[in-house]
Specification:
It is built from 15 helices and seven strands. Strands 1-7-5-6-2 form a five-stranded mixed beta sheet, with helices on both faces. A two-stranded antiparallel ribbon has the order 3-4.
Length: 384
C-alpha cells in the first residue's frame, strides 16, 4: 500500500485550525501522532478522510507549509480575536455562504428592477460619527418617546431587525454554520461582519454571543454599512470595546452608541447612584436597550468608571448565559434569524416562479424538502 509523504507542519495546522487535539482524533486516525512526528506516513485514503474531518481542501495537504487563508474583505478584529491557526473552517464557510446569498440577491434585485439603497455608503470617515448615528436613527424612525410602546429591549431588537430588513438590508443572526448545530461559531474569534453592496447589503451577527451584547454588534455592523465599501469587513472586540487605534472601528463604535443611546438623552436621564447595577437596568427599560449597552454608553460619557462597567459586564453576561442556556425555540421561527425573512421570502418566491431551481434554493437556505415547504408556509408562501 502506497504511503504519502506530507508536511507534519501542514497536518498539525489542519488539525489545530479545526479545533482538534491529538486525542480528539485518535480513534479515527490512530497513527496521527506518528504522522506529525514523521515516523509514519498516511495512505491516500487516510489523507482524504483527514481532509474531510478537518474541513481542509484536499490539495492543501500536499503543500510544503501551511497556507495563508485570508478573508475576502478587511479584517477589523483586535489581535486577541485572531487565532494563531488562522481563520476557522466555521467562520470561512459562514462567510462564503453569506457571500453566495448576497450575490444571488443582488442579481435577483437588479433583474426585477429594484433600485439601490440610498443609505449605503453615505458616511465618510471624516464625518462626525455621532451625526451619522443620529442620521441612522432618523432612517429607522427612532424618535424620542417611541420606546414607550415597546415592552422590553429584546422586543426592541426584534422590531429593529424587522425595520432593517424592510429597508432592504439582509440580517442574519446565527451561532452555528447554517443549521448544523455541531459546527458552532466562536464569539472569541468574531462578533459579526458587514457585507456592503448597494443592492444587497448584509449584516451577520454571531448568535453565540450573549443576546445583550448582540444588540451592540447589530448597531456596530449597521454603521459599517453606512460607510459602504470602506466599512466592509469582520469585527471582533473584547467587552463591547472596539480598538481606539483603528479609524473604521472607532467610527462605527461611536456611531452605534449614538444610534442606540443618544448622549444628550442619557445625560438627562442619568441619576448619580452608588448602585450601578440598578441604574443600568432602570435606564435599559427606559431606552429599550440591554443593560450592558447602557453601561457601555455611560462609560463612554464618563458617567461611570471603566472598572465598574467591566465588572458589571462580566457579571451580567455570565448570569445571562446561565439563565437562557443555549439553543432551543421553534425551528421554523429560528429561520427568521438564521436565514432571514428578507432573503428567505425572496428565494422561496423565486423557486415558486421558476427563476431558481429548488436544488439551489435548498443549498442557499440550508433547508430542503419538507423543511423548505413548512418554512414557506410560515412565511405565507404556498409552493406547488
Amino acid at each position: 500500500m502506497n504511503r504519502i509523504a506530507v508536511s507534519p507542519e501542514v497536518l498539525r495546522w489542519a488539525r489545530e485550525r479545526a479545533g482538534f487535539s491529538l486525542s480528539d482524533l485518535r480513534s479515527k486516525f490512530p497513527k496521527l501522532k506518528e504522522w506529525e512526528a514523521e515516523t509514519s506516513r498516511p495512505t491516500m485514503k487516510q489523507l482524504e478522510d483527514f481532509a474531510k474531518k478537518t474541513r481542509v481542501p484536499f490539495g492543501f495537504l500536499f503543500l510544503p507549509k501551511p497556507p495563508e487563508m485570508s478573508l475576502p474583505f478587511t479584517d477589523f478584529r483586535t489581535v486577541e480575536n485572531q487565532r494563531p491557526q488562522g481563520i476557522s473552517p466555521e467562520l470561512m464557510d459562514t462567510v462564503n455562504l453569506m457571500l453566495r446569498r448576497q450575490a444571488w440577491l443582488r442579481e435577483e434585485r437588479i433583474e426585477t428592477g429594484v433600485g439601490p439603497l440610498e443609505c449605503i455608503g453615505t458616511a465618510k470617515l471624516s464625518d462626525d460619527p455621532a451625526v451619522t448615528g443620529r442620521k441612522m436613527r432618523r432612517v429607522f424612525g427612532l424618535k424620542d418617546g417611541r420606546t414607550k410602546q415597546i415592552p422590553n429591549w429584546t422586543a426592541a431588537i426584534s422590531e429593529l431587525r424587522n425595520a432593517i430588513e424592510e429597508l432592504g438590508i439582509m440580517v442574519v443572526i446565527n451561532g452555528v454554520v447554517g443549521n448544523n448545530n455541531r459546527r458552532k461559531l466562536d464569539v472569541n474569534e468574531f462578533r459579526g461582519f458587514a457585507l456592503s453592496d448597494p443592492y444587497a447589503p448584509m449584516i451577520f451577527v454571531n448568535g453565540a454571543d450573549a443576546k445583550s451584547a448582540q444588540m451592540f454588534t447589530f448597531a456596530h455592523e449597521l454603521a459599517h454599512l453606512w460607510l459602504g465599501d470602506a466599512g466592509e469587513g469582520l469585527s471582533g472586540f473584547q467587552g463591547l470595546q472596539p480598538p481606539d487605534d483603528h479609524d473604521v472601528e472607532r467610527f462605527c463604535d461611536q456611531a452605534a452608541t449614538e444610534f442606540l443611546v443618544p448622549a444628550d438623552q442619557l445625560r438627562d436621564a442619568w441619576q448619580t447612584t452608588s448602585d450601578i447595577d440598578t441604574a443600568f437596568r432602570n435606564l435599559a427599560r427606559h431606552f429599550k436597550v440591554s443593560p450592558i449597552v447602557i453601561g457601555r454608553r455611560a462609560m463612554d460619557l464618563h458617567l461611570v468608571e471603566r472598572e465598574k462597567f467591566f465588572d458589571f459586564y462580566r457579571s451580567y453576561t455570565q448570569n445571562e448565559g446561565r439563565q437562557t442556556g443555549a439553543g432551543g425555540g421553534d425551528f421554523y421561527n429560528n429561520q427568521n434569524t438564521k436565514v432571514g425573512r428578507l432573503f428567505a421570502s425572496q428565494i422561496i418566491r423565486a423557486a415558486k416562479e421558476g427563476r431558481i431551481g429548488f436544488k439551489e434554493a435548498y443549498d442557499l437556505t440550508g433547508l430542503s424538502g419538507n423543511a423548505f415547504q413548512k418554512y414557506a408556509r410560515k412565511l405565507d408562501i404556498m409552493l406547488p
